[in-house]
Amino acid sequence: MATCIYLTHPNVDIDPAIPVASWDLSDEGITRMKAGLRQPWLLSVDHVITSSEKKAIETGRIIANHLGVECWSEAGLQENDRSSTGYLPEEEFEEVANEFFARPAVNIRGWERALDAQTRIVSAIKGALAKLPDDEAVLFAGHGGVGSLLRCHLTNTGISREYDQYAGGGCYFFFDSADLTAKRASVKATEWRRIEDLESELAG
What we know:
Layout: E1 3-8, H1 27-36, E2 45-50, H2 54-67, E3 71-73, H3 90-102, H4 114-129, E4 137-142, H5 144-154, E5 171-176, H6 179-182, E6 193-194
Parallel strand pairs: 1-4, 2-3, 2-4
Antiparallel strand pairs: 1-5, 5-6
Protein backbone atom coordinates (compact mmCIF):
# COMPACT_ATOMS: atom_id res chain seq x y z
CA MET A 1 0.00 0.00 0.00
CA ALA A 2 1.60 3.24 -1.14
CA THR A 3 1.48 6.45 0.83
CA CYS A 4 0.49 9.26 -1.52
CA ILE A 5 0.48 13.04 -1.37
CA TYR A 6 -1.65 15.11 -3.71
CA LEU A 7 -0.28 18.65 -4.08
CA THR A 8 -1.86 21.45 -6.11
CA HIS A 9 0.22 24.07 -7.88
CA PRO A 10 0.37 27.39 -6.00
CA ASN A 11 -0.20 30.92 -7.33
CA VAL A 12 0.28 31.52 -11.06
CA ASP A 13 0.87 34.41 -13.44
CA ILE A 14 -2.56 34.93 -15.00
CA ASP A 15 -2.34 35.95 -18.65
CA PRO A 16 -5.61 35.91 -20.66
CA ALA A 17 -3.56 35.86 -23.88
CA ILE A 18 -1.95 32.51 -23.01
CA PRO A 19 -3.80 29.17 -22.77
CA VAL A 20 -4.46 28.32 -19.12
CA ALA A 21 -2.52 25.05 -19.36
CA SER A 22 0.60 27.05 -20.31
CA TRP A 23 0.56 29.48 -17.37
CA ASP A 24 3.68 29.70 -15.19
CA LEU A 25 4.01 29.83 -11.43
CA SER A 26 4.17 33.40 -10.17
CA ASP A 27 6.95 34.73 -7.97
CA GLU A 28 4.61 34.29 -5.01
CA GLY A 29 3.93 30.70 -5.99
CA ILE A 30 7.62 29.90 -6.31
CA THR A 31 8.34 31.53 -2.95
CA ARG A 32 5.63 29.42 -1.30
CA MET A 33 6.99 26.25 -2.88
CA LYS A 34 10.50 27.02 -1.66
CA ALA A 35 9.14 27.58 1.84
CA GLY A 36 7.41 24.21 1.57
CA LEU A 37 10.73 22.46 0.98
CA ARG A 38 11.17 22.58 4.76
CA GLN A 39 8.37 20.02 5.17
CA PRO A 40 9.91 17.07 7.08
CA TRP A 41 7.67 14.55 5.31
CA LEU A 42 9.18 15.47 1.91
CA LEU A 43 12.21 13.34 2.79
CA SER A 44 9.96 10.28 2.57
CA VAL A 45 8.94 10.99 -1.05
CA ASP A 46 10.36 8.49 -3.55
CA HIS A 47 8.63 9.63 -6.74
CA VAL A 48 7.18 12.89 -8.12
CA ILE A 49 4.54 12.65 -10.83
CA THR A 50 2.88 15.68 -12.39
CA SER A 51 0.09 16.60 -14.73
CA SER A 52 1.13 17.73 -18.20
CA GLU A 53 0.24 21.37 -17.49
CA LYS A 54 3.21 23.74 -17.18
CA LYS A 55 2.40 25.09 -13.70
CA ALA A 56 2.09 21.56 -12.31
CA ILE A 57 5.36 20.50 -13.93
CA GLU A 58 7.09 23.53 -12.42
CA THR A 59 5.65 22.65 -9.02
CA GLY A 60 6.80 19.04 -9.21
CA ARG A 61 10.27 19.93 -10.45
CA ILE A 62 10.94 22.24 -7.51
CA ILE A 63 10.35 19.31 -5.18
CA ALA A 64 12.08 16.69 -7.31
CA ASN A 65 15.19 18.82 -7.80
CA HIS A 66 15.35 19.43 -4.05
CA LEU A 67 15.10 15.72 -3.29
CA GLY A 68 17.23 14.51 -6.19
CA VAL A 69 14.49 12.22 -7.50
CA GLU A 70 13.04 11.83 -10.97
CA CYS A 71 10.00 13.89 -12.00
CA TRP A 72 7.74 12.93 -14.88
CA SER A 73 4.24 13.61 -16.21
CA GLU A 74 1.37 11.15 -16.66
CA ALA A 75 -1.62 11.51 -18.93
CA GLY A 76 -4.98 12.09 -17.28
CA LEU A 77 -3.78 14.21 -14.36
CA GLN A 78 -4.60 17.57 -15.96
CA GLU A 79 -7.21 19.99 -14.61
CA ASN A 80 -10.84 19.72 -15.69
CA ASP A 81 -11.10 20.74 -19.35
CA ARG A 82 -12.31 24.35 -19.52
CA SER A 83 -11.18 25.06 -23.08
CA SER A 84 -14.76 25.81 -24.16
CA THR A 85 -14.60 29.10 -22.28
CA GLY A 86 -10.87 29.66 -21.88
CA TYR A 87 -9.87 32.33 -19.40
CA LEU A 88 -12.72 33.81 -17.38
CA PRO A 89 -12.55 36.87 -15.09
CA GLU A 90 -12.41 35.82 -11.44
CA GLU A 91 -16.01 36.57 -10.50
CA GLU A 92 -17.39 34.80 -13.55
CA PHE A 93 -15.02 31.87 -13.08
CA GLU A 94 -16.17 31.38 -9.49
CA GLU A 95 -19.81 31.33 -10.58
CA VAL A 96 -19.15 28.70 -13.23
CA ALA A 97 -16.95 26.66 -10.88
CA ASN A 98 -19.73 26.66 -8.28
CA GLU A 99 -22.11 25.26 -10.86
CA PHE A 100 -19.51 22.72 -12.03
CA PHE A 101 -19.41 21.19 -8.55
CA ALA A 102 -23.15 21.58 -7.89
CA ARG A 103 -24.20 19.84 -11.13
CA PRO A 104 -21.53 17.17 -11.70
CA ALA A 105 -23.46 15.31 -14.41
CA VAL A 106 -23.85 18.40 -16.63
CA ASN A 107 -21.44 20.05 -19.08
CA ILE A 108 -21.48 23.51 -17.57
CA ARG A 109 -20.85 25.92 -20.46
CA GLY A 110 -19.05 23.15 -22.30
CA TRP A 111 -16.64 22.33 -19.47
CA GLU A 112 -15.72 18.69 -18.89
CA ARG A 113 -18.31 17.20 -16.54
CA ALA A 114 -17.20 16.85 -12.93
CA LEU A 115 -18.15 13.17 -12.99
CA ASP A 116 -15.92 12.56 -16.01
CA ALA A 117 -13.03 14.55 -14.57
CA GLN A 118 -13.30 12.57 -11.33
CA THR A 119 -13.25 9.23 -13.15
CA ARG A 120 -10.26 10.38 -15.18
CA ILE A 121 -8.12 11.54 -12.26
CA VAL A 122 -8.81 8.40 -10.21
CA SER A 123 -7.99 6.17 -13.19
CA ALA A 124 -4.80 8.11 -13.95
CA ILE A 125 -3.52 7.84 -10.38
CA LYS A 126 -4.32 4.13 -10.23
CA GLY A 127 -2.46 3.63 -13.51
CA ALA A 128 0.58 5.57 -12.34
CA LEU A 129 0.77 3.68 -9.04
CA ALA A 130 0.50 0.33 -10.83
CA LYS A 131 3.91 1.02 -12.40
CA LEU A 132 5.64 1.58 -9.05
CA PRO A 133 6.54 -0.49 -5.97
CA ASP A 134 3.59 -0.51 -3.58
CA ASP A 135 5.62 0.43 -0.51
CA GLU A 136 7.03 3.75 -1.73
CA ALA A 137 5.72 7.29 -1.24
CA VAL A 138 4.49 9.16 -4.30
CA LEU A 139 3.79 12.87 -4.64
CA PHE A 140 1.34 13.91 -7.35
CA ALA A 141 1.57 17.57 -8.44
CA GLY A 142 -1.69 18.68 -9.95
CA HIS A 143 -4.67 20.99 -9.68
CA GLY A 144 -7.34 22.12 -7.26
CA GLY A 145 -10.43 21.12 -9.21
CA VAL A 146 -9.54 17.51 -9.93
CA GLY A 147 -7.78 17.26 -6.58
CA SER A 148 -11.05 18.12 -4.86
CA LEU A 149 -12.87 15.54 -6.99
CA LEU A 150 -10.24 12.98 -5.98
CA ARG A 151 -10.80 13.84 -2.33
CA CYS A 152 -14.56 13.30 -2.73
CA HIS A 153 -13.87 9.89 -4.28
CA LEU A 154 -11.45 8.80 -1.54
CA THR A 155 -13.94 9.72 1.18
CA ASN A 156 -16.94 8.29 -0.71
CA THR A 157 -18.81 11.58 -0.50
CA GLY A 158 -20.90 13.32 -3.11
CA ILE A 159 -19.17 15.84 -5.33
CA SER A 160 -19.28 19.22 -3.62
CA ARG A 161 -17.16 22.36 -3.58
CA GLU A 162 -17.19 22.01 0.19
CA TYR A 163 -14.13 19.81 -0.33
CA ASP A 164 -12.24 22.36 -2.44
CA GLN A 165 -8.77 23.66 -1.54
CA TYR A 166 -7.89 27.02 -0.03
CA ALA A 167 -7.65 30.06 -2.29
CA GLY A 168 -4.24 30.44 -3.90
CA GLY A 169 -3.58 26.72 -4.26
CA GLY A 170 -0.33 25.20 -3.08
CA CYS A 171 -2.36 22.81 -0.92
CA TYR A 172 -1.90 19.12 -0.27
CA PHE A 173 -3.43 16.11 1.45
CA PHE A 174 -2.28 12.58 2.22
CA PHE A 175 -4.04 9.38 1.18
CA ASP A 176 -3.38 5.65 1.03
CA SER A 177 -3.45 3.97 -2.37
CA ALA A 178 -5.88 1.37 -1.02
CA ASP A 179 -8.55 4.04 -0.64
CA LEU A 180 -8.66 4.57 -4.40
CA THR A 181 -10.67 1.34 -4.40
CA ALA A 182 -11.96 1.07 -0.83
CA LYS A 183 -13.09 4.73 -0.67
CA ARG A 184 -12.90 4.71 3.13
CA ALA A 185 -10.61 7.66 3.87
CA SER A 186 -11.98 10.08 6.42
CA VAL A 187 -12.69 13.69 5.57
CA LYS A 188 -10.43 14.78 8.44
CA ALA A 189 -7.53 12.61 7.32
CA THR A 190 -7.65 14.15 3.86
CA GLU A 191 -7.94 17.75 4.97
CA TRP A 192 -6.16 20.26 2.77
CA ARG A 193 -2.98 21.79 4.21
CA ARG A 194 -0.99 24.71 2.79
CA ILE A 195 2.48 23.74 1.59
CA GLU A 196 4.20 26.44 3.66
CA ASP A 197 2.49 25.36 6.92
CA LEU A 198 4.86 22.82 8.47
CA GLU A 199 3.69 19.32 9.40
CA SER A 200 5.79 17.01 11.52
CA GLU A 201 5.23 13.70 9.74
CA LEU A 202 3.36 11.78 7.09
CA ALA A 203 -0.28 11.22 7.99
CA GLY A 204 -1.31 7.66 8.64
